[in-house]
Design a protein that fits this description.
The structure is a single chain. With about 300 residues, the protein is an alpha/beta fold. It folds into 2 domains: about 5-40 and about 100-140 and about 205-305, Rossmann fold, CATH 3.40.50; about 50-95 and about 140-195, 2-Layer Sandwich (SIR2/SIRT2 'Small Domain'), CATH 3.30.1600. The protein contains 14 helices and 9 strands. The protein has a 6-stranded parallel sheet, with helices on both faces. Strands 5-4-6 form a 3-stranded antiparallel sheet, with helices on one face. Strand 7 (about 225-230), helix 12 (about 240-250) and strand 8 form a beta-alpha-beta unit. Helix 2 (about 15-25) crosses helix 14 (about 280-305), helix 7 (about 80-95) crosses helix 10 and helix 8 (about 100-110) packs parallel to helix 14 (about 280-305). The two termini are about 40 Å apart. The structure holds zinc ion. Zinc ion binds next to loops. Zinc ion binds near residues 183, 185 and 188.
Length: about 300
């Protein structure tokens, strides 16, 4: 392995956060991006605040939930009530989720570059922003899919029509019995496709094909300058993105590990020398990187004239 040669590491001391990211993007042969809840929050897709209180006033009054996270792992009294909540949840976080500006910016910044994304978010943000599906690996499931709660079959089913019916026909925080979905194979209740506290979820053919594309990407750039970029990955499930990313950075001498997070998470000593922590708001950061990239393009254009 050759010595690493990232200019952003040797000359980065006096650069702004956005210049560091901009420079790293230009230096990299490929970019691996991990996206967590912090990225969604940057565009206002949060689990607390008005977005939560305005959509679930009845549930909040009954159960005194603090946020949607607490709600999403709640033990409901019955399936009628559970689906009254989750149908609205899916609508909010998937079907009616608006376009996120930071996702659009990220897509523009990645244009013409070799990249792949892995995300722990199960929302609709990447599809909505028009990302190439083959470059995004939804490792934690998707809110618009259903799975058998017993996992008897490796199949996932689209739930959008059903969720719409549930929203239309729910009364007093309950959906009618005839809308409650049960597994066609084993009769167990269906649930949203997401990983539970034991890290289990149903993985189907589509999941494995997405996973393969992700691994193919990693295998393609083993000796190249790989920018490993983490956007808003916290410590909810570090085993999904954060720890594998740090391990990858440790194993690859040419990789640069860049983490964007307001909080200061521990970086292992072995990768510290090839790490950059940007304590920045993701939305502002991407805005500024985009401006810098436009200036760079203008300069190139001017020198070519
Ligand atoms: Zn089943």
């Amino acid at each position: 392995m050759g010595k690493t040669s990232w200019h952003v590491l040797s000359n980065g001391e006096y650069l702004t956060a956005s210049s560091k990211l901009s420079m790293a993007l230009d230096e990299a042969d490929a970019v691996l991006i991990g996206v967590g809840a912090g990225m969604a929050a940057a565009d206002g897709f949060t689990y607390a605040g008005p977005r939560f209180t305005q959509n679930f006033p009845d549930f909040i009054e009954k159960y005194r939930w603090l946020d949607m996270f607490q709600a999403s792992v709640f033990e409901f009294e019955n399936l009628n009530e559970e689906w009254a909540f989750f149908s609205r949840f899916v609508d909010l976080n998937y079907m009616s989720q608006p376009l996120g500006e930071s996702y659009i910016r990220l897509k523009e910044l990645l244009e013409g570059r070799n990249y792949h994304i892995i995300t722990s978010n199960a929302d609709n943000a990447f599809e909505k922003a028009g990302f190439d599906k083959n470059k995004v690996f939804d490792v934690q499931g998707k809110y618009n899919l259903l799975q058998c709660s017993k996992g008897c079959t490796p199949k996932r089913y689209n739930n959008e029509e059903l969720m719409k019916d549930m929203i239309d026909r729910q009364r007093g925080m309950k959906v009618p019995d005839d809308l409650i979905p049960y597994c066609k194979e084993c009769g167990a209740p269906m649930e949203l496709n997401r990983r539970n506290h034991t890290d289990w979820m149903v993985e189907d053919e589509q999941f494995f094909s997405d996973q393969k594309l992700f691994h193919n990407f990693l295998d393609s750039y083993t000796d190249k300058k790989l920018l490993i970029l983490e956007l808003g990955c916290g410590y909810m499930a570090p085993q999904v993105i954060k720890h594998p990313f740090q391990q990858l950075a440790e194993n690859r001498q040419n990789a640069l590990y860049m983490t964007v997070n307001l909080k200061d998470y521990r970086i292992p000593p072995a990768v510290r020398k090839r790490s950059i922590w940007l304590q920045e708001d993701i939305r502002t950061l991407l805005e500024n990187v985009q401006k810098e990239q436009q200036i760079i393009k203008m300069k190139i254009y001017e020198t070519e004239q």
